[in-house]
Specification:
Layout (H helix, E strand, L loop, with lengths): L2 H11 L14 H13 L13 H4 L4 H15 L4 H13 L17 H12 L5 H12 L29 H4 L1 H11 L3 H17 E2 L4 E2 L19 H14 L8 H20 L20 H16 L5 H17 L27 H20 L1
Antiparallel strand pairs: 1-2
């Protein structure tokens, strides 16, 4: 879909979240546990996901992996034991193996949950397959351009996918590599991750707009009003990924100092782009007639709340943004319990409906809930 065809679809979908949406639970953690239970009950039934594909069915693929990343955050926030038990059971079912495509960041995302499990009772067995895979990646790194060019064979054959040439990858892979260094004491994984993170950032970050292009195909793309196209969830992936990596870096690390500056630069821009209804538009610079969209909104709410708690963002300036974002996310819970308004799998702004949900949207909601709860506890 071209961006010119996107505008009328957005207009058709531009309605507020339904007034009859389910009432929010009493606390962020209660809301998160309730949604997690809803998703856990449907792991083997994809009928609730409008655009489910073979990739959605992959228990080691990125769509489900982001849900499990959110589950680890929820377990750390004091959720009932069944949340931790579900994570451990998932890893055991998967044999603690990352996805099949060794160099593909999306297939590395599930390792974040495995590494969490290794530190919460699963032990070294949960680390071994990931460490073996990552050893190959860092010892024999892919040599290819970051330019994104889809060949005639299709998207999956894109050469640069062996590296982090699309901004989503900065959520999927770096936290796992850096955490593996933390757990093993082997800094090769962290050094590789930081080298690739900055290569991607230098390539895809627009210093004028303080946002990331999804990939190089979007450098020259403009909408019918001449605006650059910055995808909400794409920048949400980056912002959420930074919030996951920063706590793992040494306080005096040059990478941490540089990444903190990048985080604050992005946060300042993101704050200005929130719509009055609390959501962020699917195309960040095109807020008019934009529907609610919860995946990007959840990642921004998570990242901003985390940044306040970490002392990187002034609470008085950013907390109102977080509160509006969290209120919007609660309103998106539908009468049947699902998180609605989640843009489906894609690589750019697209249509979205109240019934649209997805594993990764739920995972982002869980992370946002835990970060908001941490803010509440800090009062």
């Amino acid at each position: 879909m071209t961006f010119r065809s996107f505008a009328p679809i957005m207009l058709a979908c531009a309605i507020a979240a339904p007034a009859h949406a389910a009432q929010p639970a009493r606390t962020p953690i209660e809301a998160a546990v309730k949604l997690a239970d809803w998703q856990l009950a449907r792991l083997d039934d994809l009928s609730h996901i409008p655009s489910a594909t073979d990739e959605t069915r992959k228990t080691r693929g990125w769509e489900q992996a982001v849900f499990w990343v959110g589950m680890t955050a929820l377990a750390d926030a004091g959720a009932p034991p069944r949340i931790e038990e579900a994570i451990l059971a998932m890893g055991q079912r998967n044999g603690w193996k990352p996805g099949d495509n060794l160099y593909f960041a999306d297939d590395q995302a599930i390792a974040q949950a495995y590494l969490w499990a290794a530190a919460h009772g699963a032990g070294k067995d949960a680390l071994a397959p990931t460490r073996a895979a990552f050893d190959t990646v860092v010892d024999k790194p892919a040599v290819t351009t970051l330019a994104f060019a889809i060949p005639p064979q299709g998207y999956g054959a894109t050469e640069c996918l062996k590296r982090w040439c699309w901004c989503d990858a900065l959520f999927m892979a770096p936290p796992a590599f850096v955490e593996l260094s933390r757990q093993t004491g082997d800094d090769r994984y962290m050094r590789f991750a930081m080298k690739e993170f900055w290569a991607t950032t230098d390539f895809l970050f627009d210093p004028a707009e303080h946002l990331y292009y999804r990939d190089s195909r979007f450098f020259e793309r403009r909408d019918d009003k001449g605006r650059k196209q910055f995808w909400s969830r794409g920048n949400g992936w980056v912002f959420g990924g930074i919030a996951r990596v920063l706590p793992l870096l040494a306080q005096d690390s040059p990478d941490r100092i540089r990444m903190e500056a990048l985080f604050k630069e992005m946060a300042a821009k993101i704050k200005t782009l929130q719509k009055p209804d609390g959501y962020w538009a699917p195309s960040l610079l095109a807020p008019e007639n934009a529907p609610p969209e919860t995946s990007g909104t959840a990642f921004y709410t998570y990242g901003l709340a985390w940044g306040i708690k970490a002392g990187l963002l002034p609470r008085a300036e950013y907390e109102p943004v977080v509160r509006k974002g969290w209120a919007a996310l609660q309103k998106a819970i539908q009468p049947d319990g699902r998180l609605g308004w989640v843009q489906q799998v894609g690589d750019r702004p697209d249509k979205v409906a109240a019934s649209d949900t997805q594993y990764y949207g739920v995972g982002a909601f869980l992370m946002a809930a835990t970060a908001v709860a941490a803010l509440d506890a800090q009062r």
